[in-house]
Batch of 2 targets.
Target 1
Amino acid sequence: MLRRLYDWTIDLAEHPRALWVLALVAFIESSVFPIPPDVLMIPMILAAPGRAWLIASVALVSSVLGGLLGYAIGMFFYEGIGQPILAAMGKEAAMAEFNTRFNDFGFWAVLTAGVTPFPYKVITIMSGWTAMPLGTFIATSILARAIRFFAVAALLWAFGAPVRGFIEQRLGLVFSVFVALLIGGFAVVRYL
């Protein structure tokens, strides 16, 4: 089954609508979807290394736009539901202090989540929730996602054939490591 999924993804990379699918996945991953766009991006670059920079650019733009959706979710969820509940409980001052502390380190939080396997959607929503300055959020998101997606594109562009051979020979191991990183990212979020 894993081999069929891998072959399907490689075939999808050559499909005329592959970039649109990647754009959709990158967009929704930044606010609600649990699967990172790397799942599509890596096989797409392996299948068409000459399009590595285009693929990374589509992932970058879509991810940042999706991050803006996550920011809006955080902003409107807090204003509409969270703030009245906290005010009724007398916790509004504590929330204001948390918002200030988060925003003091917001640049680093967005940068770290944008580059690492840490779920970026958590930070996009928290950035809106804490009213991080939108300009800071956008600039940091662009920087972080560019580092992540273009580093992947550069590595696969430079070492694509050996990497593809390694992945195809050890598909089970590669998939297991990816799933472990994904679960680890969610575990980190849960216990922070």
Target 2
Amino acid sequence: MVSKTEQEIFEMGLISNYIVPIGIIVIGVFVLYRLIKIFQYSYASIYKKPLFAQRYFMLNNLTRAQYEILKNEHSFFRDLSRKDQLQFEHRVSKFIQTNTFVGKQDLVVTDEMKVTIAATATMLSFGFKKYQLDIVETVMIYPNAYYSQINKKFHKGEVNPRLKAIVFSWEDFKHGHNIEDDNLNLGIHEFGHAIHLNASKNNDISSLIFNQGFNKLTTYLQSNESVRQNLIASKYFRAYAYTNQYEFFAVLLENFIETPSEFQSQFPELYKCMKQMLNFKFASY
């Protein structure tokens, strides 16, 4: 039988040799994690971009059929470097895995619908570190424009934060996707709303950068009457942009993606703000 003294010596040895070092390591790891997080936020605040936005291990893959759809249907994906294409494919796969796709009015959801919609969301958030949208868990797809019992109007698309859903008329989504230079793209517009709303409700690094950029954009416009007048007079942005701040950003986003050269040429400061908000440094942007 071990004596009390020997037991105490054994316990003290156990504490000093194992428990204390483990405790120090745990505290050290926690402190290091907090310091890294503080550094990342400081870096983002100063340079207006995340320290890093992409992961380089354990990347998901699409099925062969889904990959062919992505490659054939999405010009933005084709213009990326091979390294960025791997990241893009991973994020499209994650969107499909983590969101529920629901066909309405007996619509059968296909891989084309899943990949094309997921690729639009991925494109817009590709510069984000935290790219998954908390306010979207369900993608509802109607065959065409649908009637809303709430406001008694036909809709082509909407974001419903209460239901954590984004809704599309597939006919109109596809039409906007197929014509890439008319600045009318339902998918970009509605995901623009989702990104804007998501950033307003979060404090991650990408949301911080987005919100700072949007505040900079609105301050710039409020303090430059001539720019506001030029915006309206140019008719480059459709009139719907001036409905409210959310529609303004969503319309600007359509133009930013579909006609970036013209956007940059006509309104370079706005273009710079948009590019910074999205951390968009890909393809020809």
